[in-house]
Write a structure and sequence with these properties.
The chain has 292 residues and is an alpha+beta fold. It is 18% helix and 31% strand. The longest helix has 11 residues, at 280-290.
Amino acid sequence: MVTYHITLPSGQNPLTVKELLEDHWLVPRKIRHFLRTKKHLLVNDQQVTWQTSVQTNDKVSLTFDDEDYPKKAIPFGDKTLVDCLYEDEHLIIVNKPEGMKTHGNEPTELALLNHVSAYVGATCYVVHRLDMETSGAILFAKNPFVLPIVNRLLECKKISRHYWALAEGHFEQKQVTYRNKIGRDRHDRRKRVIDAKHGQRAVTHITNLKAFKEASLVNCQLETGRTHQIRVHLSHHNHPILGDPLYSKKAAPRLMLHAHQLQLTHPFTRQKITVKATSESFERGLHKLTEH
C-alpha cells in the first residue's frame, strides 16, 4: 500500500474531484472505482464526494494497494550506472550513455530501465525511448499512477526534447522543418524509411548551429517521436548523422546524436523542469571529427 499527498498548485482553477481525477490526472475508471469504494481519497484529510470542489493549496491524498496497481517485478540492474539529472517522488530523468538499451527485449535482459529501477529501489516505467546508440536525457515514471499523465504530456507535445547531431554536409538555411512520414523498411526490419503513403506523421525542427569543413552541428527538436526519426529525416535529406550504423557510410567513434535537453512542466506541482545532459564521448567525437 502506498499513499501520495499532492498539494494543488497556485493558480489552480476550482474543479470537482471527479474532474481532477478524470480529466487532469487521467486515473483509469477501475482505479477511480477503487478509490471511491475503499474511501482511499481524502481532501485536506477529510472524506469527500466526487462532486466536492478542490482548489489551490488543497491537499489531495490518494492511497493505492496491490489490487489497484499489481506490482510489476523486473530484475534490478546496477544502480552505479545511473547518472541522475532530476528526481522527485514521481519522476526521474537520467543521462543515458551510448551503447545501452533503454529497455531489454527479453525479461532477463538488463538495460537502462533495470539500472534505474535499482537506483530508485522499485520498478520504474518507460515514458519515451532513446536508441541504443544515442546518449542523453531520458524520462522515466516512478509509479504507474503518474505514467498515463506524463504519457499524455508527451502526446500533447508538452515535453520538449532537444538533440545535438553532427550531420554530413552543410545546410542552406539556418532553420528547416522536416515533415516526411516515416514507416518500416520492408527489406530490413532494423530500419525505417520515408513512406509518404503508409508512414506515420513525423515532424523534426532543425536549427543549424555550426558548420565545419565537411559536416554541420545541428539542434534537432522533436515534435513527434517516431523510431529513428531524426536519423531517417536527416539521412533522407542527404545529411546522415556521422557514425550512424544504419543510415550513414561515414565512420565515427559513435553515433553522433545526443539528447542534450529535456523540458516539461511537472503535472502536479506545475514547476518547470529543465535538465541538460552532457556526454564526454560525444564531445570527444565532435573534436576528433572536426579538428581538421
